[in-house]
Design goal:
- With 278 residues, this protein is α+β, with helices and mostly antiparallel strands.
- It has three domains: 41 residues; 138 residues, Porin (Beta Barrel), CATH 2.40.160; 88 residues.
- It has three helices and 16 strands.
- The protein has a 16-stranded mixed beta sheet that branches.
- Strand 12 and strand 13 form a beta hairpin.
- The radius of gyration is 30 Å and the shape is globular.
- The N terminus is likely disordered.
Amino acid sequence: MKSKLWFIVLILIMSCKNSRKVELIDTSVLETVKDDIVTEEIPIEQKINISWNNYDWLTEFDWSLMDGRDYVDPAAEHIYWIGDMTPIVKIYKLNIPQDSDLYQVRLRNEMFYFMYQRDEKDKLYPLENTFYSNILDIRHVPISSRLTLILDGYFYSGQNRVGEQTDPNYPLVGIWGEIPHLTEYRLIDPTGCLYYMDIDKRIPGFAIREGTYLLKQTGERAFETISSFPDGQLRLEFIDDQSMLITPLFTLPDGEEGIVGEVIIYYNPDNPRFRREE
């Protein structure tokens, strides 16, 4: 009988000790762990090496794009794009050989891209990393009214000049093709442009064109695109360290449809989907 009583007393003593341990864990231990987690949080600036004196960090991520009109005017509507409808924006450092002739190319009213010529005036080179990556051979003479492009030794395209030749020193300058499939080449000066951005697809409903844009810093945390075409002029301003507001600086001609409104590009440095894969 006495042994049974001692056994019961032992159980009660052990229960009291365990209860005290649980209480300690629920209070001081958990609070200490929580405090450690908060104090060890790494700032975003440290994760992505943000510097407002050097913008190379812009090239480390892919940027997603969304309607930004309601950021400027909270009463404005907001268009949502889902999945593959959402354009992706990529920013790169501009690196072309010195003394190159850079052409901004406009395909109809749909998109922009860039090609450049070096000493060999019978070749066209694309900017690196853009959607268009082919080196083209040119087959024409300065007084020719037809432009023939050769890719890897094979015929790529042929277009007739539209209108008169305006610059005999740069016979590529001008409009080529047939309405409505027109391609226009214009010379552009990239001086002061350290970066360029690619918008990978048409922005549904908007007048901002897809394609490639030169970026020139114009103020503190602000850029503008350098364009030979009015509808290629945009302003980019930082909203914060993860997003920029893009504002079109053009109006559309009569008869052309599209929303001339703001869009926002943004990234999430904690989301691996935005990490640039080279």
